[in-house]
């Protein structure tokens, strides 16, 4: 068999001339997808921001859907009705506190009820030795500037509380707790009572589920035993 380069000498010439060009193109092909696949820093931040806004990227992600409090709390309609009598009545019952906490998570404001609960636990301290570490934890978590779960306090209340943390008393967080309590009572509590989740509890019903279609019955060989085929229809 003859050498194909002898029959088509231009192949050899073209290959030798285009070799540098081939290397350049090969390098460009490798680099171009790499560049395209790496979004800029701004694009990454925008994409991350959009993801974080989605409910599934937050704790209690499914709590925002109507009816989930009904499933979680498992309370009678009569008990749920009592929660509407007063905010204090709601928080005094464990099921009510749980339901309200889950509701606040849907609004991304659960730091308020968590702070209130921490203050309630703080006031149950049995010795002075317990106060300092607890006070420091509460202050660093909820009150100091840029705290991970900073609550909304006015300047005067925050200042008074800050000065008391060094030598804490059982009453150290009373003013701050009262401020957050009033905020929840006047703002979050009315919205909770109007929410679909709470209304479903009062009605004692959960949102309707889609009706499942029954599968058609599968025939077996036994279904046809003793049955003579009718060939007249053919």
TrEMBL record:
* Keyword vocabulary terms for this entry: Signal transduction inhibitor
Biological processes, Gene Ontology terms: negative regulation of signal transduction
Q: Check the record and name the InterPro entries matching this protein.
A: RGS, RGS_sf, RGS_subdom1/3, RGS_subdomain_2
Annotated ranges, domain RGS: 86-202
State if Iron is listed as a keyword: no
Q: Which residues form the signal peptide?
A: none
User: Would the keyword Ion transport turn up in this protein's UniProt record?
Assistant: no
> Which protein, by its recorded name, is this?
RGS18 protein
Which organism is this protein's natural source? Orthonyx spaldingii
Q: What does UniProt list as this organism's lineage?
A: Eukaryota, Metazoa, Chordata, Craniata, Vertebrata
């Amino acid at each position: 068999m003859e050498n194909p380069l002898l029959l088509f000498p231009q192949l050899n010439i073209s290959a030798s001339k285009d070799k540098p060009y081939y290397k350049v193109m090969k390098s460009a092909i490798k680099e171009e997808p790499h560049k395209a696949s790496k979004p800029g820093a701004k694009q990454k931040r925008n994409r991350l921001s959009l993801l974080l806004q989605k409910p599934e990227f937050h704790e209690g992600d499914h709590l925002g859907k109507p009816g989930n409090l009904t499933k979680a709390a498992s309370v009678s309609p009569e008990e749920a009705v009592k929660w509407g009598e007063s905010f204090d009545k709601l928080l005094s019952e464990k099921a009510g506190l749980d339901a309200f906490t889950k509701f606040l998570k849907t609004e991304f404001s659960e730091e308020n009820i968590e702070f209130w609960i921490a203050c309630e636990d703080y006031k149950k301290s049995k010795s002075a030795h317990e106060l300092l570490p607890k006070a420091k934890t509460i202050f660093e978590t909820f009150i100091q500037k840029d705290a991970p779960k900073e609550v909304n306090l006015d300047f005067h209340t925050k200042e008074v509380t800050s000065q008391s943390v060094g030598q804490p008393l059982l009453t150290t967080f009373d003013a701050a707790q009262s401020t957050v309590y009033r905020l929840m009572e006047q703002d979050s509590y009315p919205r909770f009572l109007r929410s679909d989740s709470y209304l479903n509890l009062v009605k004692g019903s959960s949102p309707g589920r889609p009706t499942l279609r029954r599968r058609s019955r599968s025939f077996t060989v036994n279904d046809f035993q003793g049955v003579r085929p009718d060939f007249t229809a053919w």
